[in-house]
Amino acid sequence: MADLSAVRAEGLVKNFGDFRAVDGIDLDVRQGEIFGVLGPNGAGKTTMLRMLATLLPIDGGHAEIFGVDVRREPHRIRQLVGVTGQYASVDEDLTARENLWLFARLQGLASTRAKSIAGDLLERFDLQEAADRPLSQFSGGMRRRLDLASSLITRPPLIFLDEPTTGLDPRTRGQMWGTIRELVTDGSTILLTTQYLDEADQLADRIAVIDRGRKVAEDIPDALKTQVGDSTLQLRLADASDTALAADVVRRLLGEEPVLTPESGRMNIPLPDPDRAADVLIGLREAGLGISSVSVAKPTLDEVFLALTGHGAHESQARESQMEATR
Amino acid sequence: MTTTTTATPLGSRRVDPSAAVARTTSHPSFQETWVQTLAMAWRGLKKMRRKPEQFFDVLIQPLLFTAMFAFIFGGAISGSVSDYLPVLIPGILAQTAMTVCMATGVQLREDMDKGVFDRFKSLPIARIAPLAGPMIADLIRYGIASVLTVATGLAIGYRPGGGVLGCVGGVALTVVAGWSLAWIFTWLGTIARSAQSVQGISMMIMFPLTFLSNAFVPADTLPDWLEAFVKVNPVSHVVSAVRDLLNDGAVTGEVGWAVFGCAVVVAIFAPLAVRSYSRKM
């Protein structure tokens, strides 16, 4: 049992009309790990998760959760998976306590037991004070916490988190990360989707990068980052018309392809080694090209995408509007 | 291995996937389904208490329509208001039940568009529970509307021949009929694109069914072709059955037909509704 995968999916396919949202994705999530699915909006992350959670029919391929067939035994799958969606799926007309009580009752807990679990969860997620207030007065972060709490009532061994921190402020995001790590310490397995490389990097043991319904890479975070370069040198040229010249200098010195925004004279250069930043700056000085600003940053999702797919993340987002239209 | 199947509190011990898999069941049991349906009914009642404006149709229609129809049509149809009331009250009861039914479908559709339905779908619960739960809560609405209709009738001079028992029987039959017919609108709620379209389609069904029946006029005054339709209209049977109960206190063949008709409607539309609800996910 221990060597059984938490999630094993082969060739998952989902079509919306003639638009293929998920195009043959394979996944193998091991027990007890945090597996991150990284990709821009519209890449097919949520669709994939919804298929695995039995919320959408699987159009092609095969999926198993702890060895249970997702298509054939949806009721069993629902007992094994806790789902926390991108938008809080809690009842706006009930209070936090009532929400938890209802979900606990629905999952077969006796009324008093449901009450005590609701109380425990409210305390754990720091919601006691707001427990009996209407949800309309809840902040985004509080709703997310309640949503996550609702997924943990029966302590499912597998938890799906769909963009758990999108739209949260940095402090709340940090708290959410802490909670997610605790869940894994308790023995749960987590499959999470995110648009933030930084989040996947912080949390995930392994990351799959999804683009246009396909998996374009899968590795441990460090290996992925090395493919992109550990950090990026961000430059702004004093004279935007020098962009092409400056790009030549970079290619000659580093052998790397810079990401250019010629209109504003911006240039993002992947750095295999932060030490090489100085080489670029000296090279530009020698070529007589002035710089108006300079900084070194960690790689962004955009750069990971460029490195892995040859096109930027924002191009994939055009797919999203297409997907909305065909839904 | 009987009491350990419920969840353990957080952090008390490690999650054990193999034990979790071992205790899964492939289908909800009948008892689980019942408990889940009641939990959903509880949710429906909570929502009713928080949004009393939902009760407007239930409160206004019996009061307004009973008085209005009695005084406008009474003289023309039966010679006097008091002679018309025994014809009208059962008719209004049926009409009110239909209106409440329609609201059931529209509200279900609105509800299904909310985020919380995503959670209901992801939970290991019987697919019928989210549909049947609100309908159980709605029994209260049918009850209030029916009692209010009869009370309004009594206030303007209706003296049902069936007595208290007849009234109780009539109201009970109205509630049963309303609940059964509501499955049609619940099914519409699961197939329609939006709450507005449920409303539109329901109106198109409800108006012909209530007005092309014997609810407000005796069927034999109608042209032959219309009379033929009125006689097969299930609403007519419900109205006749309620009349028999209210006015004569008699459990006639019409009552049997009405109950049988209701059972047929539930047998057809409840599975259809559950199937289209399950497919949507």
From TrEMBL, chain A:
Domain ABC transporter as annotated: residue spans: 7-237
Subcellular location: Cell membrane
GO biological process, one term: response to antibiotic
GO molecular function: ATP binding; ATP hydrolysis activity
Keywords, comma-separated and alphabetical: Antibiotic resistance, ATP-binding, Cell membrane, Membrane, Nucleotide-binding, Translocase, Transport
A Pfam family annotated for this UniProt entry: ABC_tran
Lineage top rank: taxon: Bacteria
Coiled coil: none
GO CC term (a single one): plasma membrane
Membrane topology, record value: Peripheral membrane protein
Protein's UniProt keywords contain Cell membrane: yes
PANTHER family for the chain: ABC TRANSPORTER ATP-BINDING PROTEIN, DOXORUBICIN RESISTANCE ATP-BINDING PROTEIN DRRA
Family: Belongs to the ABC transporter superfamily. Drug exporter-1 (DrugE1) (TC 3.A.1.105) family.
Protein name per its UniProtKB record: Daunorubicin resistance protein DrrA family ABC transporter ATP-binding protein
Organism taxonomic ancestry: Bacteria, Bacillati, Actinomycetota, Actinomycetes, Streptosporangiales
Automatic annotation (TrEMBL), chain B:
Signal peptide: none
Topological relation to the membrane, as annotated: Multi-pass membrane protein
Membrane spanning stretches: 55-78, 84-106, 139-157, 163-188, 200-217, 255-274
GO CC, alphabetical: ATP-binding cassette (ABC) transporter complex
Record localization: Cell membrane; Membrane
UniProt GO molecular function: ABC-type transporter activity
Disordered, as annotated region: 1-24
A Pfam match: ABC2_membrane
Location of the ABC transmembrane type-2 domain: 53-280
GO biological-process terms attached to the record: response to antibiotic
PROSITE patterns in the record: ABC_TM2
Alphabetized UniProt keyword annotations: Antibiotic resistance, Cell membrane, Membrane, Transmembrane, Transmembrane helix, Transport
Similarity section: Belongs to the ABC-2 integral membrane protein family.
Protein name in UniProt: Transport permease protein
Organism encoding this protein: Microbispora bryophytorum
